[in-house]
Structure formats: structure tokens, C-alpha cells
Amino acid sequence: MLNDKIILLVEDNPDDVELTLRAFKKSNLMNEVIVKRDGAEALDFFFGKDGVADKGNNGLPAVILLDLKLPKIDGLEVLKKLRADERTKLIPTVILTSSKEQNDVVNGYKSGCNSYIRKPVDFNRFAEAVRQMGLYWLVLNEATPKSRGL
Question: What secondary structure, in 3-state letters, does 6-36 show?
């Protein structure tokens, strides 16, 4: 039942992508994970030609895991564009970053993130953080109804 909930991971570091995917697997979260490697790819996924935002809610991810430091378009700008569009503004978005800058935390919340998580360096701690995050956003969280009018 949970497998139909798509996770969008926007991350440019291949090692962090691999760690995140391994952490999901270790936590038995078998949801489809779509990976985009920069901010432009993420926005194209939603708004580009044949983007999922134009296809209704069926192709929209259940949660977005968004790094801040991305090539082409940074994570905060991606978040602002997602929040500015009626079709994507309610998608839960978690900033998942290694940044310890207090300014990044403040700007993330000001831009509309739902949660801000610093990536632990230790894999076991990282896997546990991903497990808890997945359980919360994919199981416990009451998502907005999938209706076009929202």
C-alpha cells in the first residue's frame, strides 16, 4: 500500500544518493525513489514539457527530500518555485542537507519547507534518521487529499 507513494530525492552528491537509497532499503521502505541531480532537473520534473504537475496528482511525489547546495538552481530557489505554484505548493518538502548554517535553517522555513534535517555523518545514525523520516512522512503524516481543487 505504501509502495505507491513516490519519493523525490533532489541530491547532486552520488555518495549521498547511494547512502539515502541504502538507508531506505535497510529500513524496508520500498517506495519508488526518483532521483534528480540538480535544481533544474527537479523543476523540469514538475513543470517541464510533460512534467508531472500538468498530469494531476497521480504522478506527484508523496514527499520531496531536497538538498540545499545544488548545481544550476539551488534548493531554496526550487522550494520557492514549488511553493509558488498551486499544483505543487502542498507537497511535503524536507530539506535534507549537511549545512549547519543557522541562516539556511531560517531561510528554509521561510521558504516553506515542512522539515529541516541535517544529514548525520555516521551511516547508522543517517539510516535511522531516514527510517524515522520515511515512517513519519509516508505512514504517520496525514497528507492533503489528492484532489485537483487543492
Answer: CEEEECCCHHHHHHHHHHHHHCCCCCCEEEE
Residue length of the chain:
150
Which of the listed CATH numbers 3.40.50.2300, 3.40.50.300, 3.30.465.10, 1.10.287.380 matches domain 2-139? Answer: 3.40.50.2300
| DSSP-assigned beta bridge partners for residue 115 | 94
- Rounded to whole angstroms, how far apart are CA atoms 97 and 119? 6
The SS3 call for residue 123 is: helix
Its pTM stands at 0.88
- Each of the 150 residues of the chain gets a pLDDT tens digit; together they read 345 789 999 999 998 899 889 888 888 888 899 999 999 999 999 998 878 887 766 689 999 999 999 999 999 999 999 999 999 999 999 999 988 899 999 999 999 999 999 988 888 888 888 888 887 888 788 877 653 333
User: What is the phi/psi pair of residue 41, to 5°?
Assistant: -60, -40
Task: Name the burial class of residue 137, with classes exposed (0-12), middle (13-18) and buried (19+) by CB atoms within 10 angstroms of its CB.
Answer: buried
User: What values do phi and psi take at 120, rounded to 5?
Assistant: -65, 145
